[in-house]
């Protein structure tokens, strides 16, 4: 069997149907695929249906793809039956390395060697997961953000034995499925999303342990400050606006002269602040800035934050009426 065209995949198998795996089931169904779901646990089918009951109205609001239907779902507790005819397999079993290694070994034996197997692992490198596969070149990490049916981004990264063509295929497949793909060139433990999330969480734990802040104070810093900005632009675009007319370059020059940089990082110093690092950041930031002027970016940020504040207030009022 030859690997199918990523834009023409019809049948997807989801191995594991918990919070993440079930979220992928919802995403794929809403994108018009035929989906076979596998989970050997008792009551797994009922749990999946409850998840779909929650997700489907939201997906309808977003907009279902042509042919999207919950009727395209088939559930089984037989793994061989589950992968029969699959054109892509999404693995989302619990986050246990030995379980994932064993699952991949089984899938590798059951599937034609051209069928790509993606893992939603939150941190294990694909190099470790693929180690017992006869065909490790078709294995790849496909790490989403919970809930997968609402948050568009998925990280795609291979292991030491993953074929680069498989990364290209997987990126194209998820783009066709309606996701925004972050295709990574290097394998790092935790990937990008969890590396960033863990750094923030680590700092929060240190502040709580030192009685410098409470859980409520830290959460409010995100929900009423940083999170509002991050919903429309990331840290580098934000710092670009923080540099005044000089933009990101001026901001970095200012930060580079201040000695409080290192104490902000609880574990280890920051990288050396070299001219080469500064230049690399400025060059890469042009892709984010995308030709927009600072006034244009400020206007976009302000309108987005205003919309989020209004939406949050509407949600608060609706929830209070229902309680």
From TrEMBL:
GO terms for biological process: fatty acid metabolic process. Residues 12-186 form the 3-hydroxyacyl-CoA dehydrogenase NAD binding domain. Residues 190-262 form the 3-hydroxyacyl-CoA dehydrogenase C-terminal domain. It comes from the Bacteria. Pfam families: 3HCDH, 3HCDH_N. GO terms for molecular function: NAD+ binding; oxidoreductase activity, acting on the CH-OH group of donors, NAD or NADP as acceptor. The keyword Oxidoreductase applies. Transmembrane segments: none annotated. InterPro entries: 3-OHacyl-CoA_DH_NAD-bd, 3HC_DH_C, 6-PGluconate_DH-like_C_sf, 6PGD_dom2, NAD(P)-bd_dom_sf. Keywords: Oxidoreductase, Plasmid. PANTHER family: 3-HYDROXYACYL-COA DEHYDROGENASE FAMILY PROTEIN, 3-HYDROXYBUTYRYL-COA DEHYDROGENASE. This is L-carnitine dehydrogenase. It comes from Sinorhizobium mexicanum.
């Amino acid at each position: 069997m030859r690997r199918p065209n990523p834009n023409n995949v019809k049948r997807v198998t989801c191995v594991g149907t918990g919070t993440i795996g079930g979220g992928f089931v919802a995403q794929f169904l809403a994108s018009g695929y035929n989906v076979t779901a596998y989970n050997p646990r008792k009551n797994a089918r009922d749990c999946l249906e409850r998840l779909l009951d929650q997700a489907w109205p939201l997906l309808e609001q977003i907009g279902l793809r042509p042919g999207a239907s919950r009727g395209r779902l088939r559930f089984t507790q037989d793994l061989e039956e589950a992968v029969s005819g699959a054109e892509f397999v999404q693995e989302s079993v619990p986050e246990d390395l030995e379980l994932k290694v064993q699952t991949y070994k089984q899938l590798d034996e059951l599937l034609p060697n051209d069928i790509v197997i993606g893992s939603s692992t939150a941190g294990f490198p694909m190099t470790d997961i693929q180690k017992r596969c006869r065909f490790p070149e078709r294995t790849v990490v496909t790490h989403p953000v919970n809930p997968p049916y609402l948050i568009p981004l998925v990280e795609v990264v291979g292991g030491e034995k993953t074929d680069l063509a498989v990364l290209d295929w997987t990126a194209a497949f998820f783009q066709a499925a309606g996701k925004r793909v972050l295709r990574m060139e290097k394998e790092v433990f935790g990937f990008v999303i969890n590396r960033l999330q863990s750094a923030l969480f680590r700092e929060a734990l240190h502040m709580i342990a030192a009685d410098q802040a409470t859980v409520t104070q830290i959460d409010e810093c995100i929900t009423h400050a940083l999170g509002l900005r991050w919903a429309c632009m990331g840290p580098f675009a934000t710092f670009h606006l923080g540099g005044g007319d000089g933009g990101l370059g001026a901001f970095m020059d200012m930060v580079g002269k201040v000695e409080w940089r290192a104490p902000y990082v609880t574990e280890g110093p920051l990288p050396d602040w070299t001219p080469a690092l500064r230049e690399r950041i400025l060059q890469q930031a042009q892709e984010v800035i995308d030709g927009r002027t600072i006034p244009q970016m400020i206007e976009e940020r302000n309108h987005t934050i205003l919309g989020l504040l209004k939406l949050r207030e509407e949600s608060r009022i609706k929830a209070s009426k229902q309680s």
